[in-house]
Amino acid sequence: MCVRGVLPFIYGGIFMVSNTPKSWINYLQMISDLVILNGALALAFTVCRDWEYFLAFRDLYLLIFALLSLLSLLIFNFYGLYNTANKSWADIMAGAMASLVFISLAIIVLSYNIPYYVVPPRVLFVFALIFAPTLIAWRWLLLSFERKVTPARKVVIIAESGETEYLSNKLNGRDRLLGVVTENRLAKGGLPVLGTFEDTEDIIASRGPDELLISGSLAWETKTKAILLGVKYGCTVYLVPNLYEIMVSQSVLSQFEDTPVIQVSLGKTHGMEQLKRIFDCLVAVIGLVITLPFSLAAALAIKLTSPGPVFYTQKRVGRNNKVFQLYKFRTMINNAEARTGPVLSSEKDGRVTKVGRILRMTRIDEIPQLINVLKGDMSIVGPRPERPVFVEKYCKELPGYAYRHMINTGITGLAQVSGKYSTSPQDKLRYDLLYAKAATPLLDLNIMLKTIKVMFSRDKSL
After folding, report:
1. Residues near 310 by Cβ (< 8 Å), separated by ≥ 6?
2. Are 369 and 395 part of one and the same domain?
3. What pTM was estimated for this model as a whole?
4. Considering 133, 149, 165, which residue would you say is the last residue of a domain?
5. Residue 307 burial (CB count, 10 A)
6. Strand bridging mode 323-329 / 311-317
7. Domain hosting residue 92, numbered range
């Protein structure tokens, strides 16, 4: 896919594992990952001189190595490490680090639950020291090679003249933009204009683009024509969805007499919300217990390095526009908005303290929000709650923004694991509404696992 930050029109399986066909490079990645994994384990046993125990239970260890190999392939595929042609290096590295976390956890679980199978902590520590840098270095070499042998995808943007520059900035830098198709042969940013909407078929037939990126704000007739022509000429079509298209996605098929109709709603399956609430409380309690040492360390660091309270509370808007107090560890100077008033935080915000930057980078500042989850103010997964002043602003500027408050807000969400700090409020709204249409326990688990990867990505936000 050539687009980052722009959503395709998703009908099913939102944000699930990619089904992109595998190339020979992907199979090379799989084989090399298995070699590195098993080689790192073998080398760790050698360095720690634990081969005698290994040889005593050789068959059992070989079986476990095979299970770990299969599990690693599944984890790597889940984090997109076998669909890297258009991914950034930072995204690949974050996926590799998240994978290492789960592989190490799997080794620990197996060590304490299978008789006679014990991986000493020193072996696990040496394994991590060997596996992580080796995998990252090899993946960097493979990515460089993949960039050289993978041809650039030819892209045509079909949008109104005012949107062309915005959409062109969403291309990943490796794709070749043939030009744009607009209503009046004009485009912002000096982009090459291929023609008007009436010329769409001639342009696609003569230029032979691999991909079409189509704006969702176009007139229905123009948009439908472009999509059908893309399918006709074998292009991969990406449509930035508008509110209508998000609302009808994954809708229930029904009928009036013999006329097929679709039921449009953001309603929940009966019993799903109760199941989600139980899941939220369980995760929140476990999370508070596991993160207690980090919370105590964070509270002490804040108190010793910056005058002011340890916790920071702020009014946020939740479900059905209910205002609640959101809890976080304080990462800014005390009374940071005394002079500026309410402003959105940025990636390089000068008001953030040194300790605060560490807390934000590691996401430790978000831990107190688990208390909000137990109180029922939020869920683990859902649209991020905004401050009342910004909700009022966005409701005026973005059609459909109010619909995101029909479900519980969350600590993490589809917009957080898919977008970046710089993702526009409009694109974040698209992610939030797509999540609202497709929310299931499986999707929530998917997003929670993706959040582990976000913790290793500096350009992502929670």
Report:
1. 299, 302, 303, 329, 330
2. yes
3. 0.75
4. 149
5. 7
6. antiparallel
7. 24-149
Residue-wise pLDDT for 289-303, tens only, equals: 999 999 999 999 999
123 in the same domain as 184: no
Residue type, 94: A
Instruction: Note whether residue 258 is domain-resident.
Output: no
What is the number of alpha carbons within 13 Å of residue 58 lying toward its C-beta?
4
Quick one: which H or E segment has residue 110?
helix 89-113
How does DSSP assign 300-357, residue by residue? Answer: HHHHHHSSS-SEEEEEEE-GGG-EEEEEEE--B-TTTTTTT-S----TT-TTB-HHHH
Whether 166 is in a domain gets the answer yes
Tens of pLDDT, residue by residue over 349-359, are 677 888 888 88
Alpha-carbon dihedral of residues 290, 292, 297, 298, nearest 10 degrees? 90
CB atoms within 10 A of CB 409: 26
My answer on whether 74 and 202 are in the same domain is no
Structure tokens at 171: 């291309």
Q: Quick one: DSSP state of residue 449?
A: H
Q: Is 52 exposed, middle or buried (0-12, 13-18, 19+ CB in 10 A)?
A: exposed
Given 223, 240, 257, the domain boundary residue is 240
Helix (H) or strand (E) holding 62: helix 58-78
Say if residue 282 is in the same domain as residue 401: yes
- Say whether both 443 and 325 belong to one domain: yes
Q: 358 and 317, same structural domain?
A: yes
For 162, how many CA atoms within 13 A lie in the half-sphere containing its CB? 2
**In a shared domain, residues 292 and 441:** yes
The phi and psi torsions of 143 (rounded to 5 degrees) equal -65, -40
**Confidence at 73, pLDDT banded by 50, 70, 90:** very high
Secondary element (H or E) of residue 368? none
Count of structural domains within the chain = 3
The two three-digit tokens of residue 303, written as one number:
């108190």
CA distance 21 to 32: 19
DSSP letters for 263-301:
E---PPPTTHHHHHHHHHHHHHHHHHHHTHHHHHHHHHH
* Closest CA relative to residue 382, chosen from 417, 413, 405: 413
**DSSP state, residue 212:** E
